[in-house]
Specification:
By secondary structure, the chain is of the alpha+beta class. It is 33% helix and 26% strand. α2 crosses α11. Bound molecules: glycyl-adenosine-5'-phosphate.
């Protein structure tokens, strides 16, 4: 297969119903994307897999589903009101706007722009005469900080400051502010975790690369509340836990790497990203952060409510440390799509497109195919109805069997079940495997167990 490009993935997603341009019939709204029938199933299956690992199988972990709109003081306490911004710089010549840190990174790929202060960025751009990517001139304005939070207003008086609320830029704060509610109602003992999956919004200046960086996206975040001194152990644990999750989903290990943060946020003790090699290059996929007791201390300070936990074993009191594991759901879907897409040239010269999804996250688990519509349709439809009670199935009666296999492979369905005369005579079906194209014959009443065993995560 030729080198995969982002354009190719965008086209495949559009063609097969994974992801469409947002508001397409109105010419689209830049950097918004709608998940189609296959994309939304894929995304939900990825969320289910995360939920299974991070909540169900993770001892002492609880899920919450907090509102997107939170008390505005939450964002003062979190530090977002004061410092959640990007360094913006304008080209005086062609008037285009850029992120100064990205400009520097583009100029010298070995640099992490994030590790530069504002002054250092300006100096670097001037000293090296970093060119504008649009017009090539090096004549920029000073840097201005641009707030990334979306503001909106509640109530009837639009301009009243009292009604100012923010669309949350991360789900994490919903977990911190519910620390006590979860601890009390679940009678949870530290260490315990709170996770959630939900929408976040950021007014990104340079969105792009399909769904990699958008202004509306979903996060899957988990906060582990632990005692100081155990934090580094848990930090290491969650770094590996995240990597193992990605490997178990089947992502190519050559395209995954850890990248420790060079410049730590003022509250972070340790921080590391897992990066994935997307078609446009390495990009952050998943962050693990040792956030110390910063979050709960800040909420204690701003809310006036004590965040101290009393250890029932020795009555000691302390504000728990937090180890955060945070991944963008849309970015994960994108990584999975890029990683799974494959093309094979068949003996007859045809190109077989395949989405090699882990069966656990494939949108459909099986395609039911009547060999001859006239004779096998009724039984095939009966089987589809029966199997649909257990997992997502599709039904395809149009075209040759070969063509139907191709369609099923292209959307990543791991199994094709063919209904033929043997089904009528002996109650057996053939099941074809997407990856090996091998076929096995099994009894109709064994299908459910056969597939259920193969789609476990
Ligand atoms: N609570 C910590 C936090 O939000 P982050 O590194 O800003 O940390 C976590 O975001 C993850 O969310 C990222 O690793 C990325 O996968 C995803 N993410 C962040 N901004 C995004 C955006 N604009 N579009 C899509 N995904 C994004």
């Amino acid at each position: 297969m030729d080198k995969l490009t982002m354009d190719k993935i965008v086209n495949v997603c559009k063609q097969y119903g994974f992801i469409f341009q947002g508001s397409e019939i109105y010419g689209g709204l830049a950097n918004t994307w709608d998940y189609g029938p296959l994309g939304s199933r894929l995304k939900n299956n990825i969320k289910d897999a995360w939920r299974k690992r991070f909540i169900q199988e993770n001892e002492n972990s609880y899920e919450v589903d907090a509102d997107i709109l939170m008390h505005p003081t939450v964002w003062k306490a979190s530090g977002h009101v004061d410092s959640f911004s990007d360094p913006l710089i304008d080209c005086k010549h062609c008037k285009t706007r850029h992120r100064a840190d990205k400009l520097v990174e583009e100029y010298d790929k070995s640099i992490n722009g994030d590790s530069f202060t504002e002054k250092e960025l300006v100096k670097f751009i001037k000293d090296n005469k970093v060119p504008c990517p649009k017009c090539g001139k090096s004549d920029f304005t000073d840097i201005r900080q641009f707030g990334l939070m979306f503001e909106t207003h509640r109530g009837v008086i639009k301009d009243s400051k009292d009604g100012l609320v923010y669309l949350r830029p991360e789900t994490a704060q919903g977990e911190f502010v519910n620390f006590w509610n979860v601890q009390r109602t679940m009678r949870a003992k530290v260490p315990f975790g709170i996770g959630q999956i939900g929408k976040a919004f950021r007014n990104e200046i340079t969105p792009g690369n399909f769904t990699f960086r958008t202004i509306e996206f979903e996060q899957m975040e988990h906060q582990l509340f632990c005692k100081e001194g155990t934090d580094t152990k848990f930090y290491k644990f969650y770094k590996e836990y995240a990597m193992n999750f990605l490997k178990d989903l089947g992502l190519n290990t050559d395209k995954l790497r850890y990248k420790d943060h060079e410049k730590l946020a003022h509250y972070a003790k340790e921080a590391c990203d897992i990066e994935y090699l997307f078609p446009m290059g390495w990009g952050e996929l998943w962050g693990t952060h040792n956030r110390t007791d910063y979050d709960l201390s800040r909420h204690q300070e701003y809310s006036g409510k004590s965040m101290e936990y009393t250890d029932p074993d020795d009555n000691s009191k302390y504000i728990p440390y937090v180890v955060e594991s945070s991944v963008g759901c849309d970015r994960m879907v994108l990584a999975v799509l890029c990683d799974s897409y494959d093309e094979e040239i068949l003996e007859n010269g045809d190109v077989r497109e395949i989405m090699r999804f882990n069966p656990a996250i494939a949108p459909y688990k099986a395609t039911i195919l009547p060999l001859v519509k006239k004779y096998h349709k009724e039984l095939a439809q009966e089987l589809k109805e029966k199997l649909s009670k257990s997992f997502m199935c599709s039904y395809d009666e149009t075209g040759s069997i070969g063509k139907r296999y191709r369609r099923s492979d292209a959307i990543g369905t791991p199994f094709c079940i063919t209904i033929d005369n043997d089904t009528l005579d002996n109650n057996t079906v053939t099941i074809r495997d997407r990856d090996t194209m091998e076929q096995v014959t099994i009894k109709v009443d064994e299908i459910e167990d056969y597939i259920n065993n193969k789609i476990k995560f």
